[in-house]
Design brief:
By secondary structure, the protein is of the alpha+beta class. It is 30% helix and 24% strand. It has one domain (3-193): Maf protein (Alpha-Beta Complex), CATH 3.90.950.10. The structure holds inosine 5'-triphosphate and magnesium ion (MG). The site of magnesium ion has 2 residues, from loops. Mg(2+) binds at residues 42, 71.
């Protein structure tokens, strides 16, 4: 049987990326979609790390098993770091990627190209019963595009332009994204500490 890895997430985009990336290491991914009885975990933290720890420890306790959680988002310099930890619900509780992207582009409409710098941040927490929780982080730098482009990925990928590729994150193939993304970088660090 393959090694199982349990991820405290209900985000289908994250699940897909973790499935692809963990497959390389021989792990099979299970997510909150397979634990419907677990109530939604409220993200009350002020930082990505606080929220990742909250999600990982809540599920680890409920299942009495080792789990990981990913709290991530888009940090835009010209917006003083917003949407940040509010990335998922930036335009409202319905968590619409389209509405979130429109809100960001609207807020950025008068910002010149040189001031459109931003980064994706991914914080992964690992919680195991009876062991200290630890956290790793990965980032990916880019520029907020003037309009959305591309259909791959999820979330803010269509408006995150990567100067090194001359494409938005949503115009990269899944394989390309999984080599350079904030999530890929966090996972690399995770694998260095994994036991
Ligand atoms: O909490 P879980 O259940 O994991 O799912 P979530 O979607 O609420 O996840 P977060 O609380 O971590 O919020 C992260 C948001 O940041 C955005 N985001 C995270 N990673 C991204 C990525 O790789 N590409 C584009 N947007 C991303 C996207 O809008 C996510 O909904
Ligand atoms: Mg969330």
């Amino acid at each position: 049987m393959k090694n199982q890895i349990i991820i405290a997430t209900k985000n289908k985009g994250k699940v897909r990326e973790f499935e692809q990336m963990f497959a390389n290491d021989g792990y099979q991914v299970t997510s909150l979609f397979e634990y419907e009885e677990i109530p939604d975990i409220e993200e009350t933290g002020k930082t990505f790390a606080e929220n990742a720890v909250l999600k990982a420890e809540t599920l680890a306790k409920a299942l009495n098993q080792k789990v990981i959680a990913d709290d991530s988002g888009l940090v835009i310099d010209a917006l003083d770091g917003r949407p940040g930890v509010y990335s998922a619900r930036y335009a409202g509780e319905e968590k619409s990627d389209k509405a979130n992207n429109e809100k960001v582009l609207n807020e950025m409409k008068d910002i010149p190209s040189e001031d459109r710098t931003a980064r994706f941040v991914c914080t992964i927490a690992v919680a195991s019963p009876g062991e200290p929780t630890y956290v790793v982080e990965g980032t990916c730098e880019g520029i907020i595009a003037l309009e959305p482009a591309g259909a791959n990925g999820f979330g803010y990928d269509p408006i995150m332009f990567l100067p090194g590729f001359e494409k938005t994150m949503a115009q990269l193939s899944p394989q390309e994204k999984n080599q350079i993304s904030h999530r890929a970088r966090a996972l690399e660090k995770l694998m260095e500490q994994w036991k």
